[in-house]
């Protein structure tokens, strides 16, 4: 399953995404963690020092190599130079799996040892002073969109992404690349404002959205969230001394997390697992094509000098779990 954590800046989405990643890893589940936030904090939230986090290889810095690997022998893509962030896979494309070794992971992913288990971490890279005035942050997350478009993930495998704060996620088609989106909301008017924006923008794209209340201190807080977000409210994470210790620089073990909050993490996992059977590979492929054609018309054709609509393989969808392949066969791995 491909899972996104979104929310207002300061809502606690990075903390909750890191806790969920740790919970999955502790259960022995294969996990790839992706930091796609403009403020790169997922590494430290998973226990890396600032120095270790700063040394992580940025996806955006290796975009040409990533493109060249993913295009494989796809005859519709002549070179990596004409492959844009939305280029969908087709016959001959190389696909990625959660549990495998490949040049993309070797170059960009780094293992992070946790107190229980370990995960692979990918980061987009920070928005630097050199980018000011000459680049958009969403050019950095283009690598994440490409990876998700080429990812084959099966049951009990997870890719968890800490997205950029607020509604900035809608500046590209990345928001449609997830099977389930968890929106973290504090029990305040500002806390639910991003929920309303997200709900409105995502309405036409079938985005599966569930709300996690955070920093919930009382029955009144919970009642407020229920009133404001209705049936989209899945659960609520309470005030946590464990999280406070973590934010103060301690390294508490996951087993020390309050039982009620650990139960919330298990509820998230159960919700994700229950949603697996409802995935629609055809719709996923159609949305990838939709955003690719939009990007091609708005800027891609002019930049590459070709009609990028020709990159669409109408007979291709990603392999479905269990080894069956929907129309159009792709090369998996090398």
Describe the structure.
The structure is a single chain. The chain has 334 residues and is of the alpha/beta class. The chain has one domain: Rossmann fold. It contains twelve helices and eleven strands. The strands form two sheets. The chain has an eight-stranded mixed sheet with strand order 4-5-2-7-1-8-9-10, with helices on both faces. Strands 6-3-11 form a three-stranded parallel sheet. The protein is globular and about 55 Å long. Residues 7-123 form the CobQ/CobB/MinD/ParA nucleotide binding domain. This is CO dehydrogenase maturation factor. GO terms for molecular function: ATP binding; ATP hydrolysis activity. InterPro entries: CobQ/CobB/MinD/ParA_Nub-bd_dom, P-loop_NTPase, ParA/MinD_ATPase. Pfam families: CbiA.
